[in-house]
Amino acid sequence: MCHNPEWGGKTMSVYLHDIPLPEAQQRLIQALEEVGLESVLGVEEIPLDERALGRVLAEPVWARLSSPHYHASAMDGFALRAEATAGASPTRPVILQVGEQAVYVDTGDPLPDWANAVVPIENVEALDEQDIPAADARHPLKIRLREALPPWTHVRPMGEDIVATELVLPAGHTLRAVDLGAIAASGHTHVRVSRPPRVAILPTGTELVPVGQPVKRGDIIEYNSLVLAAQVRSWGGEAVRFPITPDDFEQICQRVQQAADMTDLVLLNAGSSAGSEDFSARAVERLGTLLVHGVAVRPGHPVIMGLIRRSQGGWTPIIGVPGYPVSAALTGEIFVEPLLARWLGRRPAEPLEIEAQITRKVTSPAGDDDYMRVVVGKVGNRVLAAPLSRGAGVITSLVRADGIVILPRGVQGLEAGAPVRVRLYRSPAEVEQTIFAIGSHDLTLDLLAQALSAHQRRLVSANVGSLGGLVALRRGEAHLAGAHLLDPQTGEFNIPYIRQYLPDTPVTLVEWVGRIQGLLVCKGNPLNIRGLEDLVRAGVRFINRQRGAGTRILLDYHLERLGIDPAKIQGYDQEEYTHLAVAAAVASGRADCGLGVMAAAQALDLDFIPLFTERYQLVIPTVYYESDLLAPLRVLMQDENFRRSVQGLPGYTVENMGQVVAQLPQ
Amino acid sequence: MCHNPEWGGKTMSVYLHDIPLPEAQQRLIQALEEVGLESVLGVEEIPLDERALGRVLAEPVWARLSSPHYHASAMDGFALRAEATAGASPTRPVILQVGEQAVYVDTGDPLPDWANAVVPIENVEALDEQDIPAADARHPLKIRLREALPPWTHVRPMGEDIVATELVLPAGHTLRAVDLGAIAASGHTHVRVSRPPRVAILPTGTELVPVGQPVKRGDIIEYNSLVLAAQVRSWGGEAVRFPITPDDFEQICQRVQQAADMTDLVLLNAGSSAGSEDFSARAVERLGTLLVHGVAVRPGHPVIMGLIRRSQGGWTPIIGVPGYPVSAALTGEIFVEPLLARWLGRRPAEPLEIEAQITRKVTSPAGDDDYMRVVVGKVGNRVLAAPLSRGAGVITSLVRADGIVILPRGVQGLEAGAPVRVRLYRSPAEVEQTIFAIGSHDLTLDLLAQALSAHQRRLVSANVGSLGGLVALRRGEAHLAGAHLLDPQTGEFNIPYIRQYLPDTPVTLVEWVGRIQGLLVCKGNPLNIRGLEDLVRAGVRFINRQRGAGTRILLDYHLERLGIDPAKIQGYDQEEYTHLAVAAAVASGRADCGLGVMAAAQALDLDFIPLFTERYQLVIPTVYYESDLLAPLRVLMQDENFRRSVQGLPGYTVENMGQVVAQLPQ
């Protein structure tokens, strides 16, 4: 079944072989050229109405009619011969007889054959008998002019807009609203556009369940087909979603054949790797020709490309799309979009690119083109790109991404501050309206993000802990940092740390929320945990926050006070970056307890043992505190509705929200 | 009927009163606030499928489920306890019993409760009895590892992507393909989105005929409703197009009432000015409240805004849209788009802006915000914005526009070279791929534009005549100029002029086409015109080309040779800028003859009297001739298909196309 020796002789030991991206694209195009599928698939003639919007012209539009198709008046006024006004002046007016020498015309009316100019109605005196002002300004007996007109004044000559036979729009143009007007004006009632490619989307995998069905452990909600279908649709294709096919080679082959027979492109989702249930490559080999198995891109390298022989003759290309959601979506962007563009006859999507500086050191596999998702914001005069999760399974990294940085093959990484080009997913205007919050995580930041979005601001928050936030402010990489750093000496929050980490930066320290920290334990508290003393008990597995997190400092402070040796706490070295991640670790059974806020416990239905109250404040460089960018934040902190929504989270108090605690350095 | 004294007491003398744009927008918003129509009109719950694309979230999406919702293997391999691999090394491997200590898992499979790490299948030796390699790598008896694993290696912990209760997407977000995936992953099957506003579009005007009906003199093809409907659709609304209503006040009132009763917004097209058949303002006054009549924007100032009282109670806003197509489309952009954005709860469109230099002096009415359409291209290192026709009737000026320059109120004009901000309609990538051709007009440039568009290049041509083209090259404002300048002394084309006008610029002169110039006359040549001698005959009205045009130089050369005094030619002072415009002048009866190319005569079904053959050449600064930007031009000039298409135009020869005539200065 497996004819290509390159993939190995034994089914179980086949492994894909990555080739560079341009080579993979080239192989596909070449194969499509060989079977005559490299350009527009077909032409449709459709009526000229608003449904033509977004369609791509398959042929140029040449004007059939001129527009205007006659000499038209450009004003409401009187058509006349310019020669008849010769010599008119304020002191020596000319009087013309209406009917013989002048005729009233509305804007757009055709000029009488004998006329060659229009005088606007407001520039004449309309006269009746005895030269008294006319009762009806449009139908006087005479008009008096006090200015001479050059010929063709206030006339739209025939063809002013469009001359018959002119090119109105070239083939390959994607129709916009105004284009439809110009096409109509040039005498067309229909447009000839490229036929939208039909794309079959075949999700496969025994572990998949459709959206809307209850999920149990091990089930994976099948949403790649949704994302791929929406991508196809947004790129001008028609998506045909097939039901989930289980991991059964014969069933998969049958479905692929059926899909290939009825569409222009098959996207076979998952099974494209080389695992035990990865049947895609074998299916392509059985039903046609395997062109590529493995492309040197991350994420998404186990891409398959091939051609399926149609039952009715001819070929249908197939792309084996990797299963991880980020890989699947990027495979769409990298391979499917350009192919649809080719078949539609339009230009491929060209994302806007901007220059930015990467905020932290990143590494990259040297053999691959590495598609790194980043958030982008402008802090001061620098445009910054902060890398998001690199995991191929983290679809929120694509949702949150403002753009992609491609680390090309041969590049093993970048130092912090290195210049990069970002392919933007958002408009530069949105980037300008982005507030970068780097620091301690708090659930109220989600509420703030939601509230700010109604004020044309986007809050992008990176969770690096309170100290990390101060460091980010020092580096000029954030507009604000949430912090709740307890000073063991003074019992004060944040100020001593700001003095130490930001000695030279004028900052405004603003009260945000008071919140209760405590231990998150399983529902019913089966291990009967009551306080930090219990963490050293045998069989109690702790999940910690990362070094530099305010919660971690709080823990260490109290452990020291209580004389507890952290080395004796099982799991002290296991670190998570957010309260919710700690809660998730407990909820999943990976740990028995962790320190965090009450709201996180409630979110995942855990029990909560309250231990300490603390002050969570916003550290804002004063230049940003006073900026227009942050104006909506200042407004929201005083907004009763917003405060109520924060107060609604368990364990939070807002009575001092917005109060300026200190201006530093004093 | 007309209650507002500001519009004048007598129906015929009412005239609109322009107010500044921000004031007009403010009046509308305030009125909408008073009647409770200032924000999202309603919420719909729709299933999570690809039709949700482009819809706007009416509420934030909070995660219901975590993703993954269990600890999942991130690789195909064996789940195990990390502790069991402690001390493993290449020389001291560890062997684990499959079943008890290790279990095969595919990517995405849940980890057994007792496991806390996964070793990829390719990193183990699968063993059977007597430690021989296992026949089935997934089901061996034992596995041998030569490396210790930290806990949670190759595991996607529960909540890695999404933790239940987290904010997935804020309200007001426009859904993209990946968003649908994240919403599905977070446990939703439906989304709550804003209801699309319904917009009624009412074309009015006795002179209008629908697209597709034969037009006679005075008829205007009604396509504004098509453009407005397409705009509404592209901005997320639903358009309801009404049939054309004639200029009858009662009928218009009836239709407006009907439209207001069934939609959220009425666009009443035309009749918004103050002419004799401009009923819109009066209709609004009768049926509700007139808020604004006249906004200080050009084109498009006679805008009307008001509220119509619904029969069933409540109010529907109405916008009276001016009739000129450019005015109508810009009214859509300026007033309708922001209103729809508000009703959908999304951000208004924010066009990308770039800096450019205006190519020529422009004037502007000081009292208005003036929306000037421009084409944009990059010539050398300068981004240039060349103004297009300012006529409100010229829809092709919007179709061809790469963007808009707003000359704000108070600005009376700009000098050539002044910096401007352009609101782009195209991507900056397209701007980079724009070839600016300024110079003599030739019909073959349309064919070239069409052919170049298939090579990812956009040809933008401005017709300023051959000499104007050389001047543009000298100013660095074009990549190439078409020229056919006959030197009376030498009989040579172009070279003497290039030496004079571009003494210091290295240029490559390339043969383009040979073409026949002659007199364009009415079908049947009723005045029996045979040559230039006939132009001085009484009753023969000539239409000329502008000074500096090659055709004009040709004419003057031959007139002088023949001893004909131009002052004796009627219409010698009437100038047009293109061959087709000359042809249109003859076809319409505005003139009896003009000098031009044969193809222009044929295009408008005129007779043609061939007089001279001439050489039309391309003058290209050598730095551009050799550039990547112009590479497709060099290819096309040698392309048989392209040459054939040019040869197909009457009166053209292409045998020397692409030949380099000279490199200057020599």
From TrEMBL, chains A, B:
Record's keyword terms, sorted: Magnesium, Metal-binding, Molybdenum, Molybdenum cofactor biosynthesis, Transferase
Pathway note: Cofactor biosynthesis; molybdopterin biosynthesis
Chemical reaction(s) catalysed: adenylyl-molybdopterin + molybdate = Mo-molybdopterin + AMP + H(+)
Enzyme Commission no: 2.10.1.1
Highest taxon of source: Bacteria
EC class name: transferase
Keyword Transferase annotated: yes
Name of one Pfam family that matches: MoeA_C
Residue ranges annotated for the MoaB/Mog domain, each copy included: 200-342
GO cellular component, one term: cytosol
Cofactor annotation: Mg(2+)
Gene Ontology biological process terms in this record: Mo-molybdopterin cofactor biosynthetic process
GO MF, one annotated term: metal ion binding
Chain's role: Catalyzes the insertion of molybdate into adenylated molybdopterin with the concomitant release of AMP.
Family of the protein in this entry: Belongs to the MoeA family.
Descriptive protein name: Molybdopterin molybdenumtransferase
Organism: Anaerolinea thermophila (strain DSM 14523 / JCM 11388 / NBRC 100420 / UNI-1)
